[in-house]
């Protein structure tokens, strides 16, 4: 199954200057729980926004740079090649960035979204979730608290196709 996972603001904001624009520890925990042990597909800029490769995951990095190399990562030049590099019988997670999300939203099987209930200044956005194509199957609301500056909700969508 191809699963797109993202945290997005109320206007589909993803980030600014290749960085997240909020800090939600429970979102990080959910991301880790869902993606650990799996292949994760991302663009080069998303990969470079991490201080180091994420542990216990196989990184598949999409870049147009011809001689780009990262130890213990799979490097490809298209989303199609990234998916082909992953096992066919396992869940694959697409983790960003904005352009990779745009390319993948029409053929992903599931969306795992953290919806952050705030408007942010951003330069990167998630594609609109078309409710004709996607069915919301679960939703878990969390109020802001001492560790979370914003209300947020974990949402799971499945493709209606």
UniProtKB/TrEMBL annotation:
Catalytic activity annotated for this protein?
(6S)-5,6,7,8-tetrahydrofolate + NADP(+) = 7,8-dihydrofolate + NADPH + H(+)
Q: Which UniProt keywords apply?
A: NADP, One-carbon metabolism, Oxidoreductase
According to UniProt, this protein's pathway is:
Cofactor biosynthesis; tetrahydrofolate biosynthesis; 5,6,7,8-tetrahydrofolate from 7,8-dihydrofolate: step 1/1
Under Pfam families, the record lists: DHFR_1 (PF00186)
| Coiled-coil spans in chain | none
Top-rank EC class of the record's enzyme: oxidoreductase
What PROSITE patterns does the database record attribute to this sequence?
DHFR_2
Q: Which PANTHER family does this UniProt record tie to the protein?
A: DIHYDROFOLATE REDUCTASE
The protein's name in its UniProt record: Dihydrofolate reductase
Organism the protein comes from = Flavobacterium macrobrachii
Q: What is the lineage of its organism?
A: Bacteria, Pseudomonadati, Bacteroidota, Flavobacteriia, Flavobacteriales
């Amino acid at each position: 199954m191809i699963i797109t996972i993202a945290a997005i603001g109320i206007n589909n904001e993803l980030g600014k200057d290749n960085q997240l624009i909020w800090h939600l520890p429970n979102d990080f925990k959910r991301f880790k729980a869902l993606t650990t042990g799996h292949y994760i597909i991302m663009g080069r800029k998303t990969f470079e926004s991490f201080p180091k490769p994420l542990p216990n995951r196989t990184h598949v990095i999409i870049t147009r740079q011809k001689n780009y190399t990262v130890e213990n990562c799979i490097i490809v030049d298209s989303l199609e090649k990234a998916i082909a590099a992953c096992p066919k019988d396992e869940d694959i997670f697409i983790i960003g960035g904005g352009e990779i999300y745009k390319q993948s939203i029409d053929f992903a099987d599931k969306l795992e979204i953290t919806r952050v209930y705030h408007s942010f200044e951003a330069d990167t956005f998630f594609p609109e979730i078309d409710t004709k194509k996607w069915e919301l199957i679960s939703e878990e609301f969390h109020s802001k608290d001492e560790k979370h500056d914003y209300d947020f909700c974990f949402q799971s969508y499945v493709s209606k196709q």
